[in-house]
From TrEMBL:
Family matches, as Gene3D superfamilies: Dihydrodipicolinate Reductase, domain 2, NAD(P)-binding Rossmann-like Domain
Lineage, opening ranks: Bacteria, Bacillati, Actinomycetota, Actinomycetes, Jiangellales
Organism: Jiangella mangrovi
Protein name: Putative dehydrogenase
Superkingdom to which the source organism belongs: Bacteria
GO terms assigned for molecular function: nucleotide binding
Domain Gfo/Idh/MocA-like oxidoreductase N-terminal: 3-120
InterPro entries: Gfo/Idh/MocA-like_OxRdtase_N, Gfo/Idh/MocA_Oxidoreductases, NAD(P)-bd_dom_sf
Length: 331
């Protein structure tokens, strides 16, 4: 049984990682840690006294886990990941791997052996819907080239939820939605569209409330060397949100991925089909992610999936969009 500590007991730590770790028959949770007392209290209530509860990574490492799951913000994650790797542990670190390419340069100091113990939390990469899309595109079901439209809208502003507003405003201060959400989307596109990076043709940003620390809506037009075009939009913190979905349109068909459920729809000349995978998208992906991490720790797989390079590649595209978008924005 692989032993694991969870560090970072905020929204995704408590809401998704902790339940997935507790559900898994392959790992045993031995410690949880967070500097915020109320977050530790909330976790304690869920783990019912059976694991050590601490306030730092060091507290978690002191319990001797094989692996550490870092559900921490991207401005804290690089330092924590490097410390845990240097302590000889396997690490599953949340995306984005850092808030900027410059901030991610600290990972350059990792040895090959340390990098081989670092899996990145590009969680939804594991979903069977992404695999199905990959086969539709790879098998030519849609034809090509493709027009991809990614409408990634999340984190609706709820005036009654001050905690959520403060958290997302705090995250926005460290980068526009494209930096945080783009980690997933540009990883999927790298997978789905194949080799060769996306180049940014143009980009825009819009701050819908003057008191927000950065523009909360961003978009870009991107090109892929194989001829595909991508129109991507990312948005947070409006009182209502457009539908979150990705569409892949080719000469032979249209595939639609529901951004919330990951239900898939395929329309071709042969007709229409809907593909719904069992279970909810969130638990489904977090469970698959834990299983993959446990396999890495046990040595059943030799390379982390996704690895640091995948996290860095997605961050680089997101940053190119953010930089290009801000070219046209006066502060
Ligand atoms: N994979 C996914 O699907 C997914 C979904 C949502 C969020 N995320 C990512 O997860 C990360 C956390 O997001 P969140 O919404 O849970 O944020 P959050 O602010 O709710 O939680 C972060 C937690 O980390 C703790 N923390 C901060 N610095 C720490 C340190 N040095 N040591 C230990 N704990 C520390 C904070 O106290 C907080 O409890 C972000 O990078 C976010 O992008 C990933």
């Amino acid at each position: 049984m692989v032993t694991v500590a969870l560090v970072g007991l905020g929204d995704i730590g408590l809401g998704a990682h902790l339940p997935a770790l507790l559900r898994s028959a392959e790992v045993r949770l031995v410690a949880v840690a967070d500097p915020v007392a109320s977050h530790r209290d909330a976790a304690s209530a869920l783990v019912d006294g059976v694991v050590a509860v601490g306030s730092s990574l060091d507290d978690a490492l002191a319990t001797g886990p094989d692996g550490v799951v870092l559900a921490t913000p991207p401005w804290a994650t690089p330092e924590l990941a490097i410390a845990a790797l240097r302590a000889g542990r396997f690490v599953l670190a949340e995306k984005p791997v850092a808030t900027s390419v410059a901030a991610a340069a600290v990972y350059d100091a990792l040895t090959a052996a340390e990098r081989a113990r670092l899996q990145i939390g590009l969680t939804y990469r594991h979903d069977p819907a992404i695999r199905r899309l990959e086969s539709w595109i790879g098998d030519g079901v849609l034809g090509g080239p493709l027009l991809v439209r990614a409408h990634i809208y999340d984190e609706r502003r709820d005036p009654a939820d001050g905690e959520h507003l403060d958290r997302i405003r705090g995250t926005l201060a460290h980068g526009m939605p494209v930096v945080h959400e783009g980690a997933h989307v540009f990883d999927w596109l790298a997978h789905l569209l194949g080799p060769g990076g996306l180049s940014v043709d143009d980009a825009w940003a819009l701050r819908t409330d003057a008191d927000l620390p950065a523009p909360n809506l961003t978009g870009a037009r991107l090109s892929h060397p194989a001829g595909h075009r991508v129109l991507a939009e990312f948005g947070w913190l409006t009182d209502a949100l457009p539908r979150c979905e990705l569409t892949f349109l080719g000469p032979r068909g249209l595939a639609t991925l529901d951004g919330a459920t990951f239900d898939l729809r395929l329309e071709t000349a042969a007709g229409e089909q809907t593909v719904v995978f069992p279970g909810e998208r969130g638990p489904r992906c977090f469970d698959l992610q834990v299983a993959r991490f446990a396999a890495l720790v046990r040595g059943d797989t030799v390379a982390p999936d996704p690895d640091l390079d995948a996290g860095l590649a997605a961050l680089a595209v997101a940053e190119r969009v953010a930089t290009r978008a801000m070219d046209g924005v006066t502060a």
